[in-house]
Amino acid sequence: MADPKKLELTWIGKENRPRLEPRILLEDPARSYLSKHRMTDHDIFDNRLIFGDNLLALKALESEFAGKVKCVFIDPPYNTGSAFTHYDDGLEHSIWLSLMRDRLESIRRLLSDDGSLWITIDDNECHYLKVLCDEAFGRNNFVSNVVWQKTLTRRNDARALSTAHDHVLVYSKSFDRFFVNKLDSSDKQRATYQNRDNDPRGNWLAVPFHAPNIRPNLTYEIITPSGRSLWPPKGRCWSTTRERFEELVADNRIYFGLDGNGMAQRKKFWNESENKMVPWTWWGYEEAGDNREANREAKEISELAGIESKFDTPKPEKLLKRILEIASNPGDLILDSFAGSGTTGAVAHKMGRRWIMVELGEHCHTHIIPRLKKVIDGEDPGGISKAVDWKGGGGFRYYRLAPSLLEKDTWGNWVINRDYNATMLAEALCKLEGFIYAPSDTLYWQHGYSTESDFIYITTANLNHEQLEQLSDEVGPERSLLVLCTAFRARTDLYSNLTVKKIPRQVLSRCEWGRDDYSLRVENLPSAPVAPGQLELFGEKESR
Q: Which residues form the DNA methylase N-4/N-6 domain (predicted)?
């Protein structure tokens, strides 16, 4: 029998992986937006809104943010077969799996060791996505499957069962390092605390006084106020020693019922408790919102910003608030690479988290930016604003993905993109070669570094022997330098501290050049060949 731990999900084209180009990000100050004045000492201004393909954007973020993101929330296309305004939500199952796999792997690299990923999904792909996440994150890092009540309306025209929920799959980067924040007790929870005996310390909750372990010093007779003899239930013992029990009785912290004849219970006072609850996996609409609430919020925000609301399945701010409360703390970095209407950034901003959002659709400009401006200006009274006492402040910087580093010339040869200036070229090649881009103010040949003694120099010049010799002398024997140039005329083995390579030849085989869109749109996807007689798009196989 095959070992179930070695079974994996398979699909046509799984072996095909994109060779992503690590693009640089270009800020557009005209679209960035900052509050006119600081509201608090904790205002955050370095949030990022990135316009571009989210897979390329995730790759672009890795060099700076790998291991630094505390919480990722994504609301990807559900692949239901329905036509959505901003993306085709009916992709072929096998293609959908490949696209999600590539994004999950990049997200895992971006997460901190104590970070977590939260994905909303419905029944159509949930269980395949669960297995896909098991592969990307490791099955032992699965945290939970939260069931979110997305609607209160029963559809009597449903073919079979009327769906009332979506799933929220939760994965940790490392389960041993992952911890959740407890939630504030609700009014319903507080109502369970009462003051049955008018204790001056206030309301209390009766909790069992017995425990599951059998220890001789914790097994003794208790006499109730009515004179009844009590012993621990079979297989259990009292939770404290006799001496401690007598102290609790003297302090009126043991309750035997109104008639003094019941089982011993310990008083847990509301004013002395943590007043926190461990999150559970059922999220009703009261605590996490529902689709109707989300659509109302989207309409209110659109009217406030003077735009038309076009989102079919926005998520309520309450849902994001609940996730961020559990998985992050103020100041932590939040990422959403399927920004949609911008709810994640809006909620993270109001809750004092740093955020990065990625969106390719034009609604990034028509909906997300106007929404965020209202949040920053304190003119967004809806959603969670009242609950968190939001007054405005902070800001974000707008970035777009740079074009591909290489393009084809008139004769079909790969050349450096004409849109690249010297600064862009240096930053792009530093990222491509794994160097940190940090141009020196004093040394023209220091564009970046990989270690304290290893540097990189990028130039479009044609270098000769004299120039390379001068470079070698300036670098010195204690340092090394990677030189990327368009051409050189010299024997490079003469300079032990230099490595000289031509561009673009040096990078031609590294990536898929000139491809700007890996989005979830069918027209941008490669066709998956179907083998003769192969009807199944997915299945299980034993790993070799």
A: 69-366
Q: What is the pLDDT of residues 415-457, one digit of tens each?
A: 999 999 999 999 999 999 999 999 999 999 999 999 999 999 9
* Closest to 507 in 3D by CA, of 537, 522, 485: 485
Q: How far apart are CA 484 and CA 477, in angstroms?
A: 19
Pick the CATH number of 4-182+278-401 from 3.40.50.150, 1.10.3720.10, 1.20.1290.10, 3.40.30.10: 3.40.50.150
Domain 406-507 part of CATH 2.60.40: no
Residues 6+ apart with CB under 8 A from 497: 472, 475, 476, 477, 479, 480, 481
What gap in Å lies between CA 56 and CA 519, rounded to an integer?
Answer: 9
Tell me the pLDDT band of 7, cut-offs 50, 70 and 90: low
Contact present, 408 and 514 (Cβ < 8 Å): yes
pTM, rounded to two decimals: 0.83
Residue 6 burial (CB count, 10 A): 10
- Residue 220 tokens read as 């003794």
What is the Rg, in whole angstroms, of the alpha carbon atoms belonging to the chain? Answer: 30
Q: Give exposure, 130-141, as e/b (b: 16+ Cβ within 10 Å).
A: bbbbbebbeeeb
The yes-or-no verdict on residue 165 having pLDDT over 50 is yes
